[in-house]
Amino acid sequence: MSVSLMSPAARVVVGVGDSPRCLTVLGRAADEARLRGAELWPVVAWEPPEGNLSARRFPTAAAMVPEWEQLARERLVEALCAAFGGPRTGLPGSALVVRGAPGPALVRLAARDGDVLVIGAGARGRMHRALWPSVSRYCLARATCPVLAVPPSPLQAALTTAHRRNTLRLRLDTGDMERDFESVPPGV
After folding, report:
1. Taking burial as the number of CB atoms within 10 A of a residue's CB, which of 37, 57, 111, 153 is the most buried?
2. Predicted model pTM
3. Model pLDDT for residues 129-149, shown as the tens digit of each residue
4. Distance in angstroms (rounded) separating the CA atoms of residues 107 and 170
């Protein structure tokens, strides 16, 4: 008698953040899941603001844990709605909210055979790198599955530049706009 063991379905695990860049990453992860015939697993990882130790040490912080988890769920639903037009991705799989640091949580979840981990990469300034550890670097260094690092959209860089100019109240450079419009193919 022969017994066939079915391997678990391949998964595309994708980290979901709260920046506009995560829409690019979610879209690329959905494309990858379709190409591979895999399940899509969007994941939001969260920690208490002062870390897990303070949440265990102080009763007031421990009382806030359900609120923080609910905020993480809302962030996940908002990202899915922005990327897919609703809370469903249109692909098999599950959306997860996980308590823990993002890097270790994603690496721990994407540990099965056939998994692919999709993360955002790039476009971090010196100040950002100094204050917050890089989730993408952590995942690239420690993941046991293939990792797809999605660079930011070129449109995101243009939006960031425009936002910075507006914040600093700098005048708009119309020459840049003319060059950008000239490079757009006709009929678009």
Report:
1. 153
2. 0.75
3. 666 678 888 999 999 999 999
4. 42
